[in-house]
Write the structure tokens for this entry.
Amino acid sequence: MSLAEKGKKQIEWARMHMPVLRIIADEFSREKPLKGIRIAAVLHVTKETAVLVETLLAGGAEVWLAASNPLSTQDDVAAALASEGVHVYAWRGETEEEYFNAIKTIASAEPQIVIDDGGDLHAYLHSTAQEIAKKVFGGTEETTTGVHRLKAMERQGILKYPVIAVNNALTKFMFDNRYGTGQSTIDGILRATNILIAGKIVVVAGYGWVGRGIAWRARGMGARVIVTEVDPIRALEAVMDGFEVMRMDEVAGIGDVFITATGNINVITKVHFEKMKDGAILANAGHFDVEVSVKDLESMAISKREIRDCVTEYVLPNGKRLYLLGRGRLVNLVCAEGHSSEVMDMSFANQALAARYIVENRGVLERKVYNVPLEIDRRVAELKLRSMGIEIDVLTDEQRKYLESWI
């Protein structure tokens, strides 16, 4: 708790750069749309998350919070939230057992709304705590990975409550995934290594919205970027965007820095490690620590040491050294501070408004995965533009009539 004062200053800094959430918090404070609602949230416990939690509290909610990554919690922020009456079960450096026990603990609060980042809370409720899940009004999901898991539940007919896929909001994935992850991934790599990006061959695995953002930012800093893909349309897009596209087998012996952004398992494995240059750097920007095969690295290495904070050196039998950042977990959160406040302003505005939408539509929504309603998406964009001092044109009646006519 001695860290709380430092954490409050961090939250103040984030709040200053999150004007949309400030507007929503003021609105929630007046209207109390979440009065009496218990919310269990599994999120990266950062200063930006704290501003979302404050917004939910302003709306009248009781919040139980656990981390969505064992290494992403900012302890000073966790302490500050705990000092404000939030039930916080998160600290940096949790073991796997502690991580899942924290999720179990917040689920035991029997929440009416669940907010998740990655799907572990949703999965726990559907596998181990089904009686609690039956009482949930609805939930939200922040990530592509989590939405995939929920869609699988929906297909199997086991989803027990409606879920709003906040990740699928245009004002989330087009900005958070692309600009947020693009910048914060490079930030994490630089904080961990202090290497010069210019001139390096950077391999980006995956050209979804996250991969696009990383590739563009790396190129902007002077890197020679090569993309790997399994989807022909995305691969073609990468080519048309001016990037080289190769198979991982081909590029393994060429790259200086490898960044995974696929959401899949075993993207870089033993066969690739064996081909890599001495000194190659490995980083992951996907949600779970499964894209770079840490298991293969551990089994191959003849020695291992922490050479810098956040950098593990593995020496292979052939004498080559490979450097894994952040233990293969999210490099932007483990080695840096995650997304900037400005981009999380939009993502978390969607979360707050989705929570209110769930309460207002309790009993109406089916047990399905829904996209964020367009009116919420557009409102977030309008508020963001207003906060930036930007005005846009409005259709005239004549223009609207023209667009709606077939003649």
